[in-house]
Amino acid sequence: MENIEWSTLSFGYKKTDFNVRTYYRNGAWGNLEVSDSEYLQVHMASTGLHYGQEAFEGLKAYRGKDGKIRLFRWEENAKRMINSARGILMAEVPVELFKEAIFKVVKLNEKFVPPYGSGASLYIRPLLFGSGPEVGVNPSKEYTFMVFVTPVGPYFKGGVKPVNMLICRKYDRAAPHGTGTYKVGGNYAASLRAIVEAREEGYANSLFLDAREKKYIDECGPANFFGIKGNHYVTPKSDSILPSITNKSIITIAESMGMTTERRKIAVDELSEFDETGACGTAAVISPIGKIIDPETNKIYEYCRNGEPGPVQMKLYRKLVDIQTGDAPDEFGWISIVE
Ligand SMILES: Cc1ncc(COP(=O)(O)O)c(C=O)c1O
Fold it and tell me: How far apart are CA 264 and CA 209, in angstroms?
């Protein structure tokens, strides 16, 4: 195993030994190639660079107490990447090729999978983009699919802490009937000003509203939003948010614990009715929200008044993390072992 200070690692890029790549040309994917270079040679007229034909995924590998490496629901990421490819007219990466690529790249970089108990994990980043030249606005005829990995530290160092969010009324991340439901780079470019401005004002992230009416909660930076009222879990239903695999998993866990769940529009006004709120996604699993500030009305919605994350979301968090690391039985069939 690499000699790395795992617990202090950030959620950032760290070089590993290998990545894998394959190219789509003349209507077919080629064989998977292994590379030790951190660079790609890209055509200067590629559609990925000019017209944003680019999609990515993010998932993690965890080492269990038994030393085995576990992947969490990778098939969901494969399916979502196919959906993203369809959304912006790229060649689709078949599920089998996606599987071969992620299992291979994890195995090749096995020594970078952090030890059990460190809170760190190996982040897996599949990337698909149009690599053929076009000058007119057209989908590319050639595509590159590659996967790299990088070890990342625990999101919350020293325990899960509530974070504050700023409602964004100045910018939209995604348009109704636009590309918000795909994991494509353009959505992230569109969100950067809002996220950086929120951070500069001391908030963890920006809480986006629906672009049409600015009335409903959409997404929480690069994560889905949820609210909890008693034994009830609610998360936004919207055509412009990314279907989070973490959120879907939390809903299954919540129901298995006897909670009721609902996907529906959540009006900003309803924020005052929740006992707990949070953001969920692969990076942090769950980020409990302490306060939400609306810059238009100056309203402050406050949760976790004692500075501690809400008990219901912590129960959901614990169960999900325990399944991911193998501490709890894989009762929903979400785990694949990298042999
Ligand atoms: C915009 C956006 N929403 C939500 C999520 C959460 O999705 P997942 O739980 O699949 O990581 C992500 C990615 O992490 C994201 O980028």
Answer: 14
